Amino acid sequence: MPLIRAFGPNEFWIIVLAAQWTIALSVIAFAGGGLGGLFIALARVSDAKWPRRIATWFIRLFQGTPLLMQLFLVFFGLNIFGLGINPWFAAAIAFTLHASAFLGEIWRGCIEAVPPGQREAATALGLRYFNRMRYIILPQASKIAVAPTVGFLVQLIKGTSLAAIIGFTELTRQGQIINNATFSPFLVFSTVAAVYFVLCWPLSLLAGRMEKKFSRATTR
Amino acid sequence: MTNLQTNASAAQGTSDLAVRMEAVEKWYGEFHALKNVELSVKRGERIVICGPSGSGKSTLIRCINQLETIKSGRIVVDGHDLTAGGKNVDIVRQETGMVFQQFNLFPHMTGLENCTLAPMKVRGISKAEAEKTARKFLERVRIPEQAEKYPAQLSGGQQQRVAIARALCMNPKIMLFDEPTSALDPEMVKEVLDTMIDLAKEGMTMLCVTHEMGFARQVADRVIFMDRGEILEMGTPDEFFGNPKNERLKIFLGQIS
């Protein structure tokens, strides 16, 4: 077996198939981040001071540090706490926290974009916090949120490439591995980039369309 | 169930006062919005509050259902002391209806859904019964045929009448109107005022912030003039318009008529 393989269809498919791990990590981060983000967003607009403060600092922390550092800290941090080195687990936690902070801040903006008269009218009718949020504020905020949320999902998918650095074998890492065997970096990373593009482009289109639909809905 | 609840709360509010405000002070940061406001409103009484913009008239009625909290003083609504807090705030909000300058209908719901949400979620009434009540009130504000439309499909006047119906669906004892016709095109003002006049004739306790002096003359038992956070004059429409005493009120009346 020669030391350097040629980049053939086989190598191409190995890279394409690695996209499943990129997708899996993105889905976990997005689902976890969605739940965490809702929690953070609600805490940010809470009437109580402490939930608001904690959420604000959580967001500041994750917006003010590089994603790569967050990955490193969770990855090595888990080891310090005796949980062993597990790239899957570390990446899932780091990306979930990261997505929670960003989605939380995006959604806070959307909640606050709902005119204050809506909250006042609901309050005046006797609806309390939970029902106000559930029936009045969140349905309106979620319409505003669709486009920026899809936009963030695109960022998140591309961001998962950083997980390659802690040894999580997804699209980018698989590309590095294939490149080490074939030494055709241009071909390999073009393929990797193309796969990311195929994942992200439809989402960008969707976000654009949502945005147009929303601006039509609000300019009535 | 509704009747039981209404009876129970009626028994609680034994005083003949719908609203009592005592030495109410309200600040927005450095701005003194309400200064030592004293006001008693009897059941069934119709009060019109007027004054220049920024005079505190909206703030005053927004304190009655605690959309604004006060710094000091006491507000008792239908026998429930708001300043004592606790459940009283919830009870008072259920017993007072509010109509806003900007309508504030819920845009993602039809007129009917706007009217049924609070009775179902707050009072726990069944959907069928809530819809029956809602249609009754939509009929009373003369737009039963618009029930299935969304707010954006309605004119300003129609939206405001749906908003009035929405408030009435909670069977309030007191209705608060915060400049209900100020955002309307002139030709739609009358339809909303007519609805309010009907309501007044039925004996509803009403507090209206408005610049519609014709309305004040026609339905008000008392007219109040506010400026810079103070109640400066209060009297029957005849006294108020015929023989105003306060200098600022005289100037104000000169400007609007």
CATH H-level homologous superfamily name of chain A: MetI-like
What's the rounded overall pLDDT mean of chain A?
91
CATH class of chain A: Mainly Alpha
* Distance N to C terminus of chain B: 48 Å
Which range best describes the helical content of chain B: under 10%, 10-25%, 25-40%, 40-55%, 55-70% or over 70%? 40-55%
Tell me the total number of β-strands of chain B.
Answer: 10
Based on CA atoms alone, the radius of gyration of chain A comes out at 21 Å
Average pLDDT level of chain B: 91
Could you give a short account of the major beta sheet of chain A? none
Number of helices of chain B: 10
Shape of chain A: elongated
For the termini of chain A, the CA-CA separation is 68 Å
At the third CATH level, what is the topology name of chain A?
MetI-like fold
Plain-language structure description:
The complex is a heterodimer of chains A (220) and B (257). Chain A is mainly alpha-helical and 220 residues long. Chain A has one domain: MetI-like (MetI-like fold, Orthogonal Bundle), CATH 1.10.3720. Chain A has 8 helices and no strands. In chain A, α1 packs across α4, α2 packs across α4 and α3 crosses α4 (87-113). Chain A is elongated and about 80 Å long. The model of chain A has no long low-confidence stretch (mean pLDDT 91). Chain B is of the alpha/beta class. Chain B has 10 helices and 10 strands. Chain B has helices at residues 2-12, 57-64, 87-95, 111-122, 127-140, 156-168, 186-201, 213-219, 237-242, 247-256, and strands spanning 17-28, 31-42, 46-50, 72-77, 80-81, 96-99, 174-178, 205-209, 222-227, 230-235. In chain B, α4 (111-122) crosses α5, α4 (111-122) runs parallel beside α6 and α5 (127-140) packs across α6 (156-168). Chains A and B meet through α5 and α6 of A and α3, β6, α4 and α6 of B.
